[in-house]
Write a structure and sequence with these properties.
The protein has helices spanning about 5-15, 25, 45-55, 80-85, 95-100, 155, 165-175, 200-215, 230-240, 285-290, 335-350, 405-420, and strands spanning about 35-40, 60-65, 70-75, 90-95, 105-110, 115, 120-125, 125-130, 130-135, 140, 185-190, 220-225, 245-250, 255-260, 265, 270-275, 275-280, 285, 300-305, 315-320, 325, 360-370, 375-385, 385-390, 395. It is an alpha/beta fold. It is globular and about 65 Å long. The protein binds flavin-adenine dinucleotide.
Length: about 425
């Protein structure tokens, strides 16, 4: 792809009308390269860890991490904020210690274009050159698949709260303000989406709030999937034990149309109105993946070499976290953390002319079903015939709901946020 095509494609991907122009002619190099350099886009669950582990494995490689926000707000544990048992501040981290301790150059800016031929990333202030690029941008939404959805207006009335922050607090406020006896509607998109058990933890947390503060209210769930996607029997047990008669769960009910003025969602068969409506839209890789041309034929996710996380479409560009397709691994923060470590190690191998090392991954996803009781699912993964698979008999689900699992979950979030920020 030549540079002119690249600029045009980037413009189309971002939905912007751009006259072709030369990337380098317009904007200068922000941080002239001193030696070998990896640029990381995204300072979330994947980006912080890949930056840190490259620097720890080979301090001779420069790492520049580009992130739009000075404070990162974690989605894991944001459902507890919606339920009312956690403060959003406890989900926040900053990057100062991480940067200082490991010599990571953090650039707070928005990546708006990527020139994979020239190996340059565009930010507001100019361009940044790389030898290898790692993308960990998380997700964006396929709003266009929901008739009537206005990307700017609808989330103000029907928050998705699938990126933590303002949306989380908005949904929480709506639940607090709702009158007792009101109906909450929650829609779950088709898989794959960020955090397979996330919607069902959300259901549990909303029900916990209703039970304690609005006991005459009910929660209607419209799930596009044929059944609960993760930990089904345990979630059902929790709903029966704690929220009997409060949750109406409809599997195989895909929301196709929304109307935020009328506060209704439509499945094509039925229109349902809610006092609070939490629409979780279908998802795709974050926009930078489209800018780099690393999105696969499905036009949603990025195919990667499962050992190095290098794109199978564009050399020297690696994709980790929610944006990539990683075989049997779920789109979770823990998976992003594990992929980041493998990707860092193998980038260092490749940049030093050594063979990549086949990975072993781990993932555990905890979900709270009340303010204290939790359940979990875990697995170990390996690569077989080029694909990431779960090692047979390596994991499973917790035997029951328990407060002990809740204690483990608290320890998990404390450790992983500490690892990302120091
Ligand atoms: C409600 C909910 C609950 C969850 N619970 C859990 C859980 O209990 N356990 C678990 O393991 N996972 C959980 N997850 C999933 C977890 O949040 C994601 O899997 C994880 O965040 C993926 O990491 P990532 O690095 O791919 O993306 P992120 O962590 O989202 O990081 C992406 C970063 O890239 C930045 N960025 C993107 N584009 C640009 C750009 N153009 N320029 C500059 N910066 C950019 C963003 O600002 C962001 O900081 C949950 C998710 C949700 C929604």
């Amino acid at each position: 792809m030549n540079r002119r095509n690249f600029i045009q494609l980037a413009g189309i991907a971002a939905g912007i009308s751009m006259a072709p122009f030369s990337l380098t002619a317009r904007a200068g190099e922000v941080l002239p390269k001193k030696g070998r350099r990896v640029v990381v886009v995204g300072g979330g669950y994947g980006g912080t860890i890949v930056s840190k582990y490259i620097r720890m494995s080979d301090p001779s490689i420069e790492v520049v991490m580009i992130e739009r926000n000075k404070t990162f707000i974690s989605c894991p544990f944001s459902n507890l904020v919606i339920g009312g048992s956690r403060d959003l501040k406890d989900n926040m981290i900053t990057y100062d210690t991480l940067a200082a301790k490991h010599g990571i150059q953090v650039v707070y800016d928005e990546v708006s274009a990527i020139d994979v031929a020239a190996k340059q990333v565009r930010v507001g202030a100019g361009t940044i050159s790389y030898d290898r690029l790692v993308l960990s941008p998380g997700i964006d939404f396929r709003f266009e698949e929901l008739e009537g959805y206005d990307a700017l207006e609808t989330p103000k009335y029907m928050p998705h709260a699938w990126k933590a922050g303002e949306q989380t607090l908005r949904l929480r406020k709506q639940l607090v303000d709702m009158a007792d006896g009101g109906t909450v509607v929650l829609s779950v998109p088709v898989t794959p989406f960020r955090c397979p058990p996330g919607p069902y933890e959300r259901i549990s947390q909303i029900a916990w709030h209703l039970k304690n503060h609005k006991p005459r209210s009910k929660l209607i769930v419209l799930d596009a999937n044929p059944d609960i996607v993760s930990k089904g029997p345990l979630f059902r047990k929790a709903w029966e034990k704690h929220y009997k008669g409060m949750i109406e769960f409809h599997a195989g009910n895909k929301v196709t149309k929304v109307d935020h003025k009328a506060m209704t969602v439509d499945t094509g068969v039925e229109e349902i109105k809610g006092a609070v409506v939490n629409v979780v839209p279908p998802q795709k890789a974050g926009a930078v993946a489209y800018m780099a041309g690393v999105v696969g034929e499905d036009k949603k996710w990025c195919p990667v070499n499962q050992v190095t996380y290098e794109s199978t479409l564009v050399p020297s560009v690696h994709v980790i976290g929610d944006a990539c397709s990683a075989g049997a691994m779920p789109k979770s923060g823990y998976a992003a953390n594990s992929q980041a470590k493998v990707c860092a190690l193998n980038i260092v191998q490749l940049m030093n002319g050594r063979e990549p090392i086949p990975p072993s991954h781990v993932n555990v996803c905890y979900s709270y079903v009340t303010d204290k009781e939790a359940i979990s699912v875990s697995a170990v993964y390996k690569v077989a015939d080029g694909k990431t698979i779960a090692v047979p008999n390596s994991g499973g689900v917790s035997t029951d709901l328990s407060e002990e699992e809740g204690v483990y979950a608290h320890s998990w979030i404390k450790n992983i946020l500490h690892e990302m920020s120091s």
